[in-house]
Design brief:
Radius of gyration: 19 Å
Oligomer: single chain
Largest sheet: 6 strands, mixed
Shape: globular
Number of helices: 10
Number of strands: 10
Strand content: 5-15%
Helix content: 25-40%
Structural class: alpha+beta
Number of domains: 1
Distance between the termini: 35 Å
Order of helices and strands: HHEEHEEEHHHEHEEHHEEH
Strand order of the largest sheet: 1-4-5-6-8-7
Length: 318
């Protein structure tokens, strides 16, 4: 059987990866509304904003030190020399978008998971091969310094203890370090930990059960690193907003009016579920029986990849 998402690798056909591409697939109005829902009420994404990836036609994920569509050159340069000594890769982000935060241009960062083990296995540190080149060793040392720089900056600005580390929980540590650095150089930032609930396509691991399950997983995972009281609250780094969220977007007014299924009206983050209905021809679009297919929604379906048959019927279509 051919892959359901031809623009993604075979090992990227399930879990959070295709869901992030689905989230950024569609018209600019549709994608902007979805991304705004992730960060509401703190950030607004307009159709004129830019994001990476761009659905399935431009699936490249953002590395912030070289994301020309997202950050000006001086910020990209500052980030690169803060994180690296020699040119190399920096962390890939599941979704990044320009946005407006409190009337000022900012950045929305999204780290996404689809099952519990996907987060729980990230307790490891960043490995350094004993046979690594001298350049790689210097970069490794620089990354450790950058993470400690973030600890000091976050502690000074929040008056709370921070323990980000290169030696353990490296994934979450680098997420918070990069979010801090953006705010430190003048860019307001919202960092969203997004959980896709009920990902039944995963053959390994436990799907996220509900919002409470995902929230507790994130808080438990972050305990060695992050003060719990920073989650879902606005803070400032050098007078710039710094807002870490565990995603739980609420359904919009018109969605409530349409009386969609309980999963989409009462559980918040379940509005982000992709309902996988696997069949011989791939994934099918799923439209709840109690909702209406708008003319715009029908057009969006025609614009999707031929193999993509199921895409976010729960978001506003305009």
């Amino acid at each position: 059987m051919p892959p359901s998402f031809p623009s993604l690798k075979r090992n990227e056909q399930r879990g959070s990866k295709p869901r992030c591409h689905l989230l950024t697939h569609g018209s600019k109005q549709q994608v902007a509304a979805r991304l705004t829902a992730l960060a509401a009420p703190y950030a607004y994404v307009a159709p004129t904003d830019h994001w990476m990836p761009e659905g399935f036609h431009n699936p490249e994920e953002a590395q912030l030190h070289q994301a020309q569509r997202l950050l000006p050159e001086y910020m990209r340069s500052e980030l690169r020399y803060w994180w690296l000594v020699y040119i190399s890769n920096t962390p890939n982000w599941d979704i990044v978008s320009t946005c407006t935060i409190e009337g000022v241009p900012g950045i929305l960062l999204v780290e996404a998971k689809a099952h519990a083990q996907e987060l729980m296995k990230e307790t490891a540190g960043k490995k350094l091969d004993p046979a690594a080149s001298a350049n790689s060793k210097k970069n490794h040392g620089q990354i450790g310094w950058a993470i400690e720089d973030a600890n000091l900056g976050l502690a000074a600005e929040t008056s709370l203890p921070w323990h980000l580390s290169i030696d353990h929980h490296y994934q979450m540590s680098n997420r918070f370090a990069w979010a801090w650095k953006l705010a430190d150089i003048g860019c307001p930032v919202v960092l969203v930990y997004l959980g896709f609930i009920g990902a039944q396509d995963m053959t390994e691991g436990s799907p996220l059960v509900n919002v409470a399950h995902w929230t507790q997983l994130v808080k438990d995972h972050s305990k060695p690193l992050v003060p719990e009281k920073v989650w879902n609250k606005r803070r400032e780094i050098k007078y710039r907003p710094f807002i870490p969220l565990i995603s739980n977007p609420q359904p919009s007014t018109h969605q409530r009016a349409n009386r969609m299924s309980t999963d989409t009206t009462e559980k918040g983050i379940e509005t982000l579920i992709i309902r996988h209905m696997t069949s011989g021809d791939g994934l099918r679009y799923h439209q709840p029986a109690t909702s209406r297919v708008t003319r715009q929604g029908t057009r969006a379906n025609r614009d999707g990849p031929q193999q993509l048959k199921n895409i976010f019927p729960f978001f506003p279509t305009s």
